[in-house]
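Subject: Re: docking follow-up (2-acetamido-2-deoxy-beta-D-glucopyranose)

Dear J.,

Thanks for your patience while I sorted out the input files. As discussed at Tuesday's group meeting, I've set up the holo structure prediction with 2-acetamido-2-deoxy-beta-D-glucopyranose included as the bound ligand rather than trying to dock it afterwards. The sequence and the ligand SMILES I used are pasted below, so you can double-check that they match what you have on your end before we go further.
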Amino acid sequence: MLNLFLKLVLLFLSCFATLCKTCNQIEKESVLSIKLSIYSPAINWTSSVDCCLWEGIECDANGRVTHLQLPGRDLSGSISPSIGNLTHLSHLNLSHNHLSGPLPHHSLLSLVLVEVLDLSNNSLTDEFPSSLLSKVIRLFDLSGNNLQGTIPSSFFQLSAGNLESFNVSKNSFTGLIPSFSWTKTSCILRILDFSNNDFTGPIPPGLGNCSRLQVFRAACNYISGSLPDDIYAATSLEELSLHVNSLSGPISNTIVNITSLIILQLYSNNLTGFIPQDIGKLTNLTHLYLHVNNLSGSLPPSMKNCINLIKLNLRNNKLEGDLSAFNFSMLRHLRTIKLGNNNFTGSFPSTLYSCKSLTAVRLSGNNIEGEISPEIVALESLSYLSLAQNRLTNATAAIKILTGCKNLSVLALSKSQFQGQVPSWISNLRKLQFLDLSLNQITGSIPGWLGTMTTLFYIDLSYNLLSGEFPKELGGLPMLVSELQTAKKIGGSRLELPLFIPPNINASNEEYYSLLSLPPSIFLQNNSLSGRGQFHTFSISNFEGNPGLCGDIIETSCSIQTRTNNNPVPSPSESSKKELVYGLTAGVVFGFIIGSIDLSVK
Ligand SMILES: *[C@@H]1O[C@H](CO)[C@@H](O)[C@H](O)[C@H]1NC(C)=O
Ligand SMILES: *[C@@H]1O[C@H](CO)[C@@H](O)[C@H](O)[C@H]1NC(C)=O
Ligand SMILES: *[C@@H]1O[C@H](CO)[C@@H](O)[C@H](O)[C@H]1NC(C)=O
Ligand SMILES: *[C@@H]1O[C@H](CO)[C@@H](O)[C@H](O)[C@H]1NC(C)=O
Ligand SMILES: *[C@@H]1O[C@H](CO)[C@@H](O)[C@H](O)[C@H]1NC(C)=O
Ligand SMILES: *[C@@H]1O[C@H](CO)[C@@H](O)[C@H](O)[C@H]1NC(C)=O
Ligand SMILES: *[C@@H]1O[C@H](CO)[C@@H](O)[C@H](O)[C@H]1NC(C)=O
Ligand SMILES: *[C@@H]1O[C@H](CO)[C@@H](O)[C@H](O)[C@H]1NC(C)=O
Ligand SMILES: *[C@@H]1O[C@H](CO)[C@@H](O)[C@H](O)[C@H]1NC(C)=O
Ligand SMILES: *[C@@H]1O[C@H](CO)[C@@H](O)[C@H](O)[C@H]1NC(C)=O
Ligand SMILES: *[C@@H]1O[C@H](CO)[C@@H](O)[C@H](O)[C@H]1NC(C)=O
Ligand SMILES: *[C@@H]1O[C@H](CO)[C@@H](O)[C@H](O)[C@H]1NC(C)=O
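The structure tokens for the complex came back this morning:
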């Protein structure tokens, strides 16, 4: 009742505010033909009422439609050419629907007053609307469609006057990024997003004249050449994301002029030279991702002043130098640090123990020596530690300390000259889910107590000197036995750092972003295990009732395919539960089969 009353009041007010405008007949027919071209169960446009009062429509005083805004309303179908009749349209927002088909290019010619054009997150096809002639356009968003072809190089010159935000990410555009030469107007852009397309060629010059530019993204394209010099003059930039391209050349030290930078992502390019020596001037930096490049030199000492750093990733470069000489102690917000696959030397940096927020440390694949200090126990949040492939001397002692790291869920210590038996203190790590001790010289038998570690679902003990039989107790590992249970227990558990699985087989490109997407497995190949029967503790019934499984569990090729397939592992989400169960089961199958093969051969 109250609701109805409110509605009436609102109706009256809107009528009053617009001097009881009524929908112009042309407008009404056009809107109706727009409606005919789309399909929406949720929208109630009836021809009996003034079209200016319809949901998502606003008119000016003369009854001309100015706004057509129906974002996220489950609309499907295509955009009718009749939209061109709404010549007074200033706001068009049909984002987050399921609209398909081409844009009505010819009709867009008449929309000369459009300020806001948001058709993002639909399934629109065909080409960029170069026919759009509006000089007043402010916000332009076509991201997340299936558009292709090139963007006219003069686009910004023709319509830049008022353009603040331009987003064409997640399409299939090709060719060059349009020119940023501002000859007629000044650049007032704040947001520019070209990511996830197929753009080629260099980043054109001109961004240095965009004094308000806050976000520039062009990641995941085929952009080449070096970073244009004048980009360093865009001193309002807060985010520069150009990762996964083919950029080459150095990162100029003048990047430190952009003191407002918060996020710098240049990873997976071909950048060379040093990390900017004065990077410590970027005190607002929280994310520094320069991994998978060709950077050399050492960590610039000034980086210790990047006191707001939360994530630091420099892995897979050619960095070197004594890591213990770098002072990490002021990086109090640092949560993850990845320096793996470089050529760092020295001992485990003791100043890192002051970074109490650390949850993940990956230093694998360097030349780090010495032992781990008991101080590491002070890193109470540490859940991920990978020190694999270093030169830790007396690894046995070095890692014994880790027993105090009660929150460890991932422990990767492969290829660490680790000797002796599987250390029993590991059983104290009650949250451990992932244990990789492969490529060491571990002797003795597989300890039965592993079977009491209820969270553990990934064990790699391959390439060691283990002997004896496969312990019955492991058959009880709930994580290995029941995929349903697994799904429940580790549900949503997100890895701090992606894992590269498996380290000992050439599939190192596979990144697992979540423990959830990691198939539970036990790897025991290349040991000296004996006996066979024990494997029957992995009851065949675990594999029944999974018609989605690729074939018979005895069929090794199928399982190996599972292990080496190149499909990206789905990131965890509710919708990927099916794939999860599939992955889990397949993983168990594979582990089982590798074990069987080895055991039956021996
Ligand atoms: C659609 O709107 C009209 C007029 O406002 C109303 O009479 C009718 O009941 C509505 N239909 C639905 C399905 O909501
Ligand atoms: C609206 O536009 C379409 C296509 O451009 C045209 O065929 C039609 O006659 C126009 N309708 C009105 C009512 O003007
Ligand atoms: C379009 O509508 C969506 C949903 O309300 C909103 O988030 C978005 O900012 C709008 N687009 C523009 C350019 O205003
Ligand atoms: C696009 O919209 C669909 C539903 O309309 C939604 O599920 C999806 O998350 C959206 N994608 C993005 C990138 O916003
Ligand atoms: C551009 O659009 C994409 C997809 O709609 C969105 O995820 C992204 O955040 C937008 N870029 C900027 C800088 O807002
Ligand atoms: C940047 O602005 C200056 C001064 O207005 C102008 O001379 C120069 O041509 C502009 N550069 C580009 C690439 O637009
Ligand atoms: C960086 O800042 C310095 C000092 O303010 C200035 O001299 C220099 O021209 C700037 N470099 C660029 C590329 O803007
Ligand atoms: C990096 O440069 C090398 C040598 O110039 C080239 O072979 C390689 O394809 C480049 N990689 C990328 C990602 O551009
Ligand atoms: C750094 O961040 C703070 C807090 O958000 C802000 O007040 C300050 O202006 C930023 N510094 C620069 C140089 O942008
Ligand atoms: C890395 O840089 C070195 C020179 O510093 C060069 O010889 C090598 O080809 C580069 N590698 C790639 C992949 O670009
Ligand atoms: C790593 O550093 C050592 C000693 O500084 C040097 O001998 C070695 O060649 C370097 N390795 C690589 C791959 O650069
Ligand atoms: C390794 O460390 C342990 C414990 O500190 C010690 O007992 C042992 O002698 C050390 N072994 C070597 C080879 O240094």
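A couple of observations from a first look. Residues 232-233, 254, 257 surround 2-acetamido-2-deoxy-beta-D-glucopyranose (ligand 7) (CB under 6 Å). The two ends are 81 Å apart (CA to CA).

Let me know if you'd like me to rerun anything.

Best regards,
T.
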